[in-house]
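R.M. (postdoc): so does anyone remember the format we settled on? I'll just put the structure tokens first.
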């Protein structure tokens, strides 16, 4: 595989997602792919990192059958992390971009999934693009969702409503950098009262963030925005459980995605007696499709 040769017209696209045990998560990603395909002049394949099919290697194989000699892969992730900097590059047959903080010696346990990836069989060029990042259109998607809540629920008094942006958290710095930059942009462009919290691995946790937020604000409503692309275990089960809301996913083992840590902050009491309005993730919003198309067009037109 040549990762440095010049671009040609025979280009194929791989949209990379994590994969999920929950069908509606993959449904959203398929919607993203179908909307993008309608805008693309090139063959497009889906590649899942884990759990779901087709795998990244299978996506590469499918494109090779279409006589492409350059593949542009874009991870449909909002922020960099272990998946985009370690796992996905290795699955594309490239070198990882950073040392793996899980295994700094580079040695993986025998049963680790990175010891069982298929080596892509492709002789052309593969380009791995950056993840989405704190793009202005991501901010616009979030603002649109919040503005819709204010309109539909007649929550016209912004002073009585607080907004919390919820991100996953990561062992690496990039997830925190992403959500903090999105928060900064949000504060620059709106008069809403807003803060952020992390589901795990990074501080402040969701309950701590909310409790600190409430110390200086007398809110009647909290709008909780999960800044994730697709629904999955985190948005359907983990975050609602932390918020003490009813969950859409019950009694399902979190297979294939063992974090080796627990959400201890689930036991922290959130000191709020008002209404919590929990939004859906970004989903297959047309503005997200625009970002993906912009990134790929920029690479093709180099």
């Amino acid at each position: 595989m040549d990762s440095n040769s010049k671009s040609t017209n025979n280009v194929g696209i791989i949209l990379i997602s994590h994969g999920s045990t929950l069908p509606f998560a993959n449904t959203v990603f398929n919607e993203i792919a179908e909307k993008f395909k309608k805008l693309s002049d090139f063959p497009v394949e889906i590649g899942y990192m884990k759990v779901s099919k087709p795998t990244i290697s299978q996506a590469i194989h499918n494109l090779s059958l279409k006589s492409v000699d350059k593949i542009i892969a874009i991870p449909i992730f909002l922020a960099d992390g272990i998946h985009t900097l370690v796992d996905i590059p290795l699955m594309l047959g490239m070198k990882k971009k950073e040392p793996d903080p899980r295994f700094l010696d580079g040695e993986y346990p025998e049963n680790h999934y990175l010891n069982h990836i298929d080596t892509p069989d492709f002789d052309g060029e593969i380009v791995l693009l950056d993840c989405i990042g704190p793009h202005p259109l991501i901010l616009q998607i979030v603002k649109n969702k919040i503005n819709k809540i204010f309109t539909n629920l007649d929550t016209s008094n912004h002073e009585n409503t607080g907004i919390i942006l919820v991100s996953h958290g990561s062992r690496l710095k990039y997830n925190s950098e992403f959500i903090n930059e999105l928060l900064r942009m949000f504060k620059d462009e709106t008069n809403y009262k807003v803060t952020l919290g992390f589901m795990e691995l990074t501080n402040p946790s969701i309950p701590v963030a909310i409790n600190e937020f409430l110390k200086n604000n007398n809110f009647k409503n909290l709008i909780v925005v999960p800044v994730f692309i697709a629904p999955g275990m985190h948005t359907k089960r983990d975050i609602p459980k932390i918020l003490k809301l009813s969950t859409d996913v019950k009694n399902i083992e979190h297979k294939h995605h063992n974090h080796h840590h627990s959400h201890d902050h689930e036991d922290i009491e959130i000191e709020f007696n008002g209404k919590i309005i929990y939004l859906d993730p970004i989903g297959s919003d047309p503005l997200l499709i625009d970002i993906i198309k912009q990134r790929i067009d920029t690479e093709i037109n180099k």
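R.M.: ...and that's the designed sequence above, right after the tokens. Also worth knowing: Confidence is low (pLDDT under 50) at residues 1-7, 251-262. The two ends are 20 Å apart (CA to CA).
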